[in-house]
Amino acid sequence: MTMTAATVTIKQGRSVRRAAIVVPWLRNFSLLAALLGGWQIASAVILPRFDPQIGVLLPSPAGVAITLAGLLASGELLIHLAASVKREAIAFLIAALAIPVGVAMGWRHSIHAQLYPVLEVLRPIPPLAWIPLSILWFGLGELQNQFIIFLGLVFPILLNTVEGVHRVDRNLIRAARSLGASEWKVLRRVVIPAALPQIVVGVRVGLGTGWMALVAAELVGANSGLGFMINDARSLLRTDIVVAGMVAIGVAGLAIDLGIRALARRLLPWSPSLTKRD
């Protein structure tokens, strides 16, 4: 094979590899691109024919992108995003106490029998239903916001922890006990590591529901955060800022979820359910 032919073969191989990466990526985002294109045409061309003021109610994707860039450049979006993330982080640290409670419930039937009926009564109540009471109890402010976010976080974490402990292979527990391991060692060395994948699932779900509850709480009783920014823009009829805030909420929620998944893959590489690509 001549040098020219070898060079051509190498370039062709690189092109094939690039295509193998780019084509699936384009396919995954084709629906999103179609939706954005339809939205742009509808808001800029079709709907204004029926109502010239429609741009106020339905901003175009291009207008939202320009607004989003302006909010980023001014730093306003980052300030509100940081406030929301801080609230979520504080509430998560408190809700993480549900993990040892869930382990105890899954390990001891007596504890489970006492707590589970109470949880099953409280769990179906949406966090938003607690907003009126939380305002009466804590007033409008950070404590009220933290309470609503905590309610969104705690139940998925707690119930998935209980389920993770219940799913541990009993043969592993019997084997550890037959080797003379104490109850504490069995719990620490066998049960908790085996339950960790399910606990991580609970954390992922909890952070998602907590993020939704956070935005709703900020709509009612906050002076900063993405929810506050959206509500303030609504009162000024700045729907471009409203939609930009919604986009920021979605992207931030996705980033939180991807971060948890990446951390789980690194810390629990032996778990097939966490290491497989979604």
Q: Which H/E pattern describes the elements?
A: HHHHHHHHHHHHHH
Overall morphology: elongated
Rg value: 25 Å
How many DSSP E strands? 0
Note the total helix count.
14
Query: Mind telling me which CATH architecture of the largest domain this is?
Result: Orthogonal Bundle
CATH superfamily of the largest domain: MetI-like
Organism: Paramagnetospirillum kuznetsovii
Membrane topology: Multi-pass membrane protein
Main location: membrane
Protein name: ABC transmembrane type-1 domain-containing protein
Kindly describe this structure:
- The chain has 278 residues and is mainly alpha-helical.
- The chain folds into two domains: 48 residues; 215 residues, MetI-like (MetI-like fold), CATH 1.10.3720.
- It has 14 helices and no strands.
- Probably part of an ABC transporter complex. Probably responsible for the translocation of the substrate across the membrane.
Summary, kept brief:
With 278 residues, this protein is an all-alpha fold. It has helices spanning 3-28, 30-50, 54-57, 61-74, 76-95, 98-107, 109-122, 131-138, 142-166, 170-178, 183-221, 226-235, 239-267, 272-275.
Characteristic terms for this protein:
single chain; 278 residues; mainly alpha; MetI-like fold; 2 domains; 14 helices; transport
Strand and helix map with partners:
Layout: H1 3-28, H2 30-50, H3 54-57, H4 61-74, H5 76-95, H6 98-107, H7 109-122, H8 131-138, H9 142-166, H10 170-178, H11 183-221, H12 226-235, H13 239-267, H14 272-275
